[in-house]
Amino acid sequence: MLGLMQNQPLLISSLIEFAERHHGDAEIVSRRVEGDLHRYTYKEAGRRSRQVANALDALKLNFGDRVATLAWNGYRHFELYYGVSGSGRVLHTINPRLHPDQIAWIANHAEDQVLCFDLSFLPLVQAVHGKCSSIKHYIALCDADKLPADSGIPNLQSYESWIGAQSDSYVWPSFDENTASGMCYTSGTTGNPKAALYSHRSSTLHAYAAALPDVMCMSARDAILPVVPMFHVNAWGIPYSAALTGAKLVFPGPALDGKSIYELLEAEKVTYAAGVPTVWQMLLSHMKPGGLRFSTLRRTVIGGSACPPAMIKAFNDDYGVEVLHAWGMTEMSPLGTLCTLKNKHDALPAEEKMKIRLKQGRAIYGVDMKIVDEAGKELPWDGKTFGDLHVKGPWIVREYYKGEGGSPLVDGWFPTGDVATIDADGYMQVTDRSKDVIKSGGEWISSIEIENIAVAHPAVAMAACIGVPHPKWDERPIIAVVKKPGMEVTRDELIKFYEGKTAKWQIPDDVVFVDAIPLGATGKMLKTRLRELLKDYKLPQL
Prior knowledge:
- This protein is 28% helix and 25% strand.
- By secondary structure, the chain is of the alpha/beta class.
- The chain folds into two domains: 22-326, 3-Layer(aba) Sandwich (Rossmann fold); 437-533, GMP Synthetase, Chain A, domain 3.
- Strand 5 (112-117), helix 5 and strand 6 form a beta-alpha-beta unit.
């Protein structure tokens, strides 16, 4: 017997419709690339999102065509979130911190038809547009009078001219909620990046779950500052959850330094913020010397990489701000766990509470997880036994776009590549990563790519890249190198060899010359052994 409820698909357009109708006067504030503050409401955002949809129709884009963005967190990017997906196209947010060759590869693989970009990324677009065969339209996210006259980019339009010519009358189409809505490539895998293809259903369910009290606890009483980029897994879903709850949104644009973030937090009476540890480290470094305080900030979600205990303690003890430790990944839309205490923890001493807060937290509704050994046997939740972390749920990938890499699932579960423990209360803690990728400042660095560049040098016989602890960036890559017999290369020469071959922030911080790299029985490099050999290594003070 079937239920007798109305069958209404879960579509992203319903979120902006709801915000416009029930929270139309709630503010969206953006620091623009131009440096000024832009201020408007959900009602105006909804109207302009409909203009975006009409503009895409005018370009004769097909249902399901990909529209790419290279943009900071701001109101125009927000409008694209809804105008693109709401009209049945797929929003493809590209990470501008990648090397131009990677960006071109990603755009071609996705078969992007349109690229919308902030003017600060104009040099990047100029570097890649000749290599992006599928892109037919380029939209600069600016006013008409800011459009560069001699950009060299074909069919370049200003965003305001592009949507300004369109009516704001548009009926959001209804379609299958499993239709693709967004796309994000992950560099947290070996080889070429792979794309997670989100659906309207998965993103809407994720928005619901993320807003729950034991997760991000968002409401119409909040003013939210998402410092986590909108090109990082949809800013952890905040642009969707904020619309769902009617929360005020404050977008920081490109100004992510401590002074700019602090001024925005205070001026806009932000109550809740989200970002990676490196951003908050800059914020705290700005505040401490001047004895600055927060007047409204009460909660911050920190993810992307492990939050240092000193940072949690500083926020909590020095500034009265609750830190919510989070974990997830691109393939998970991204939230998997968030660390909030249970009622029984209230009476614990501060030291015991801190031990819990340092964990990545409990699974949120919609995510199931387990840890397994090498044979796939499920391991106990005792907080001590560690194993490979597997997850499943309605917003977790079942395969990558175009089937790249084959099915990633193991018996219906997605292996995260993390090694973790889970305690009896369900709190998960990541202890290591099974894949040899490095996470620096919330960004993934592929060790294989770093190694491939090194061995391309004529004096290098073998190279292995590992991550080492860094006080600011969590991890930084170093490269262990075996020189060819009779050949010489210096540290500085090899570091310089990386220039132009990968993004600057992916270049190793140091080169360690070794006589040999440990190998396993099958000839694979034993990086666990290499890490043990270099356990006393310290990064040079630059």
